[in-house]
Write a structure and sequence with these properties.
Distance between the termini: 164 Å
Largest sheet: 7 strands, antiparallel
Helix content: 10-25%
GO molecular function, one term: calcium ion binding
Number of helices: 5
Strand content: 25-35%
Number of strands: 42
Strand order of the largest sheet: 2-1-34-31-30-29-28
Subcellular location: Membrane
Shape: elongated
Keywords: Disulfide bond, EGF-like domain, Kinase, Membrane, Receptor, Repeat, Signal, Transferase, Transmembrane, Transmembrane helix
InterPro entries: EGF, EGF-like_Ca-bd_dom, EGF-type_Asp/Asn_hydroxyl_site, EGF_Ca-bd_CS, Growth_fac_rcpt_cys_sf, NOTCH1_EGF-like, WAK_GUB
Membrane topology: Single-pass membrane protein
Oligomer: single chain
């Protein structure tokens, strides 16, 4: 459903004149009304199934009205899933509490494929009895007829009994009344060209109401009396002609000895006609919009009364008619192929919208890219041009251009160009709540594992239209309507939006912002502050460091002072040494001079005396 509401703006962004235009386009609904048969238009708001209802057993899938567990099935449609301790482990699915084994379902046509036994009477045996199937207390039939069109009736299923062997008498007995329903016999002569004689019993004209449990009783003709030829066992089984081809050879040759496949048609037996059933909306089985109801007859011979009804999705729809909104458009696409256009001109295209076949969720989301224009334009419903779209807001911005009008003034044509207006179309996936939508996993739109569903209400023409949209979970961004469409946001790469004054660490779906070791506080609001203990330890460390530094400095100063003193003393000694050396040299010279002078004086004095 797409609902357009609220704003109508001109190209300049001004609000348009006049009252706000509200346009309701029932466009994205998975269930429009109208089809053949008795059409369903009711919705039971008390219907929701438990969220934990199983949908499969082994490799067999099924849908409501069938189910396993309390509240998961319609009365009469309960199933039993049995596990087997094999290697590898296997599971088997049974109708009811485990009497008839299921092979498969055809939910579109209301058919269940079940196993029925191959009954074998040995060559030396004269009689043999065996139950073929027991459907008492089940809304199933071996043969049913439905008026699927207004002009003719169609057979939903019709089975046969096949009896093979020589000299056989086969009697089909209704266990409920212990009466013979039908019989057939075979004869074999020595010159017979067929290795296997057989006879069949058709259920086509049976009254489906009268026979629900069947037993096959086998006997042999008198061989001697009839001069018959008997060299093989007798085999009997139930089968559907459409499902029976080469299997008969396997059965007759003995390679298939256990079971064969029979088709059963299921129907709603709470009321005999659609008309009566629709008067009881709380129990009426055809829950989905776009579903039809058809009366059921026992067979062609009993079309004067009905025994119940069946539901089918309307023409051009498929899915399950037995759950709300279970029938969806056949053009429905749950995922996006790789070759889909993601842009048209300047407009980005996001799934569920698309332009190519198979690239949009259903035909309601179909857009047209007009590539003949420059640049290409994206068209919606051939009337609007798409400007942009938003998955988060659930909006489609479109504009329409009014026609150019030419008005005649005097004899001159004056052109008045129409004003382009922008409309904001609000859209929802469908007119159902998240609770309802999640019950049908085939059509539920929020497919990404990191997405969630939100109920939405949109006002349109004074009415509130309810539906839902999808969004990526917090910490993720992208397209919730696609598998793996929501990707993790790396908040640490955008500190302006995701504040962190500490250490930022990205996580899946979020991020952590922590203070460095030794500090505390809220780093998303302000810077971290050191812890008191850390401050004390830091003070001690600083004090010790300062003390050690001072000690080293003092020691260094003392050592340097001593070295300085030593160097100073050395210089003084060297100075004194040099001075003393000069004085000694001078003193020696003077001393030598005096001695010489004294010697000369002595000599002179001696000569004077002489």
């Amino acid at each position: 459903m797409l609902v357009t509401s609220g704003r109508r703006c001109s190209r300049e962004g001004r609000e348009g004149m006049g009252s706000t235009e509200v346009l309701l386009l029932l466009f994205l609904t998975l269930g429009p009304i109208g089809s053949t048969g008795e059409e369903n238009t009711s919705t039971d708001i008390t219907f929701p199934l438990p969220s934990n209802c199983p949908k499969s057993c082994g490799n067999i899938s099924f849908e409501y009205p069938f189910g396993i567990g309390s509240g998961c099935f319609r009365p009469g449609f309960n199933l039993t899933c049995m596990s087997h301790s094999t290697d590898p482990p296997t599971r088997s699915l049974f109708l009811g509490d485990g009497t008839v084994e299921v092979i498969d379902f055809d939910m579109d046509n209301g058919i269940v494929y079940v196993k029925t036994p191959i009954v074998t009477m040995g060559v030396d045996e004269d009689y043999f009895n065996h139950t073929l199937i027991d459907l008492r207390n089940f809304p199933f039939s071996f043969n049913l007829l439905a008026n699927l069109t207004s002009s003719s009736a169609d057979s939903l299923t019709s089975n046969k009994i096949y009896v093979a062997g020589c000299s056989a008498n086969a009697y089909l007995v209704d266990l409920a009344t212990n009466t013979t329903v039908d019989s057939c016999s075979t004869t074999c002569y020595p010159n017979s060209s067929s290795p296997h004689e057989y006879c069949t019993i058709s259920m086509y004209y049976w009254n489906a109401m009268n026979f629900t449990s069947l037993e096959i009783r086998l006997t042999r003709l008198n061989q001697n009396e009839h001069h018959l030829f008997n060299t093989s066992p007798i085999k009997a089984f139930m089968y559907h002609p459409n499902n029976f081809t080469e299997d008969i050879e396997k059965i007759l040759n003995g390679t298939e000895t256990l079971v064969t496949m029979t088709t059963l048609a299921y129907y709603m037996a709470d009321y005999p006609t659609c008309k009566e059933a629709k008067n009881h909306t709380m129990t009426y089985a055809c829950r989905s919009n776009n579903s039809d109801c058809f009366d059921i007859f026992p067979n062609f011979a009993h079309q004067n009364y009905t025994i119940g009804y069946i539901c089918q999705c309307s023409l051009s729809y498929q899915g399950s008619p037995y759950i709300p909104y279970g029938c969806y458009d056949k053009t429905f696409t749950p995922s996006l192929p790789n070759n889909c256009s993601t842009k048209c001109g300047d407009v980005d295209i996001f799934f569920p919208f698309g332009v190519e076949e198979g690239c949009y969720r259903d035909k309601s989301f179909f857009l047209t890219c007009i590539r003949a224009t420059k640049p290409p334009t994206l068209s919606f419903q051939d009337y609007y041009m798409v400007v942009n779209m938003s998955l988060e807001e659930g909006t489609l911005a479109v504009k329409k251009k009014t026609y150019d009008y030419f008005f005649s003034f005097a004899y001159n044509n004056q052109p008045f160009i129409g004003l382009e207006e922008i409309f904001i179309l609000n859209w929802i996936i469908t007119d159902q709540s998240c609770e309802y939508a999640q019950q049908n996993t085939t059509t539920f739109a929020c497919v990404d594992q990191h997405s969630s569903c939100s109920d939405k209400k949109i006002n349109s023409n004074g009415q509130k239209i309810s539906g839902y949209r999808c969004q990526c979970n917090n910490g993720y961004e992208g397209n919730p309507y696609l598998l793996n469409g929501c990707t993790d946001i790396d908040e640490c790469r955008n500190p302006q939006k995701y504040l962190c004054y500490g250490t930022c660490t990205n996580t899946m779906g979020g991020y952590s912002c922590t203070c460095p070791p030794g500090s505390s506080g809220d780093p998303t609001q302000k810077a971290c502050v050191p812890d008191k203990k850390h401050t004390l330890v830091l003070g001690v460390i600083i004090g010790v460091s300062n003390g050690v530094g001072l000690l080293l400095l003092s020691t260094s100063l003392i050592i340097l002072r001593r070295k300085w003193k030593k160097r100073k003393q050395k210089r003084i000694r060297e100075k004194h040494f040099r001075q003393n050396h000069v004085d000694q040299a001078t003193e020696g010279t003077s001393r030598n001079y005096s001695l010489e002078k004294e010697i000369l004086w002595t000599e002179a004095a001696g000569r004077g005396k002489g």
